[in-house]
Design a protein that fits this description.
By secondary structure, the chain is mainly alpha-helical. It has helices spanning 19-27, 63-67, 79-115, 119-128; strands at 2-4, 35-37, 42-44, 51-53.
């Protein structure tokens, strides 16, 4: 099995070749048993490999390439699912990271207070520092 992510973002280039054309060759049962890797100059039998591709849109994928695929449409997350993901995963992680940064600054300030006995020097540093 080989997984190819976001094939809708494959670009076309006159200099470097067309990646979608290479995919056509790889996915064609008549050609993929004698595929040759040009970089390694080594023949590879790809006929027994299951290719799974993902894409966010089908608009940028060529029709010949789409013809060689079985397309399965999956829906996006609902608003409620996105809300739960944010509440259970993203928000706690961000909160933890912000809290850790805050604690690091507090430790630095406490150490500076201890090190700097002269109040004017400490006040000057506090004006420069943004918390």
């Amino acid at each position: 099995m080989a997984i190819l992510f976001e094939i809708d973002k494959l670009g076309r280039s006159e200099i470097h070749g067309d990646p979608q054309s290479n995919l056509l060759e790889i996915l064609d049962p008549a050609q993929n048993n004698a595929f040759t890797d040009n970089y390694l100059d080594f023949p590879i039998d790809l006929s027994k490999i299951l290719f799974i591709c993902s894409a966010n849109t089908m608009e940028t994928i060529s029709q010949p390439l789409l013809d060689r695929m079985d397309v399965i449409h999956l829906s996006s997350y609902t608003f409620q699912e996105k809300k739960q993901i944010y509440k259970n995963h993203i928000y706690p992680r961000v909160l933890k990271e912000v809290y850790l940064i805050y604690l690091q600054k507090l430790i630095i300030i406490k150490n500076l207070k201890r090190l700097l006995s002269h109040k004017n020097v400490f006040r000057l540093l506090m004006k420069v520092s943004t918390i």
